[in-house]
Design brief:
Structural class: mainly alpha
Order of helices and strands: HHHHHHHHH
Number of helices: 9
Largest sheet: none
Shape: elongated
Radius of gyration: 20 Å
Strand content: under 5%
Distance between the termini: 54 Å
Helix content: over 70%
Length: about 200
C-alpha cells in the first residue's frame, strides 16, 4: 500500500468515526478525544490530518455531500429518458434525506456556529445538481423530448428545478399532500416539465 492509499484509508476511518461521534453527541459536545477513541488512534493522528474540530466537521459534511452527489449521479445515469432522469434525481434526493436524518439534525443544530462553511458546501451541492439538470435538459432537447431553449432559459429552468427540489428535501414541510412516494415524484416532475415539453 503506497503512502497516498494509506493516508486515504486513515482519513476514511477518521471520517466514519467522526460522523458517528457527531451524530451521537452533536457538534458542540463532541471532542477530538471522542473521535480519537472511536478510531482507536491517538489525538496526534487526528491533528495531523485536521487542525481542529471545525475542520474535521467540515470534512465529514463534505464527505457526505460527495457520497450523495455520486449516488445521485449513478441513479440519474441508470434512468431512461429525460423525464425519468429528473424523477430519479428527485427520488434519490428524498431517499438520501431520510438516510441522513441523524447527521442532518447535527448539521442543523450547528449551522449557525459554522454558517459560512455550511452555506458554501450547500451551494456547491446545489450547483452540481444544477449541472445535472442542465445535462438532462440538453439531452431532452437533442432527443426531441423538450422544445428548443436558449442557454439562459436552460440555466433558469435548471436553477428553478433544484430550488424546488431543495425545498422538498427540507426536514419539515407542512403539507399532508407532499408524501415521498414514486407517485409524488411522478406528479412533481410531470408538472415541472410541462413548461419545457415539446
Amino acid at each position: 500500500m503506497n503512502p497516498n492509499q494509506r493516508d486515504e484509508k486513515i482519513i476514511q476511518e477518521i471520517l466514519v468515526a467522526a460522523r458517528n461521534v457527531f451524530t451521537q453527541y452533536g457538534f458542540k459536545k463532541a471532542t477530538m478525544e471522542d473521535v480519537a477513541k472511536a478510531t482507536g488512534k491517538g489525538k496526534s493522528t487526528l491533528y495531523y490530518y485536521y487542525p481542529g474540530k471545525t475542520e474535521l466537521y467540515e470534512a465529514v459534511v463534505r464527505d457526505e455531500v460527495e457520497k450523495h452527489i455520486k449516488a445521485i449521479r449513478e441513479e440519474v445515469n441508470k434512468a431512461i429518458g429525460s423525464e425519468g432522469k429528473l424523477k430519479a434525481l428527485l427520488s434519490k434526493r428524498l431517499e438520501l434525506k431520510k438516510q441522513m436524518q441523524n447527521l442532518g439534525h447535527v448539521i442543523q443544530e450547528s449551522m449557525f456556529d459554522n454558517f459560512d462553511t455550511f452555506c458554501r458546501i450547500k451551494q456547491e451541492f446545489e450547483e452540481t445538481q444544477v449541472g445535472f439538470v442542465k445535462e438532462i435538459v440538453l439531452g431532452g432537447i437533442q432527443l426531441g423530448e423538450f422544445k428548443k431553449l436558449s442557454a439562459e432559459e436552460i440555466s433558469f429552468f435548471s436553477h428553478w428545478v433544484i430550488a424546488g427540489f431543495s425545498s422538498l428535501s427540507q426536514p419539515i414541510y407542512p403539507s399532508q399532500w407532499l408524501k415521498e412516494t414514486d407517485e409524488f415524484c411522478d406528479k412533481v416532475v410531470g408538472f415541472i416539465i410541462e413548461g419545457v415539453k415539446k
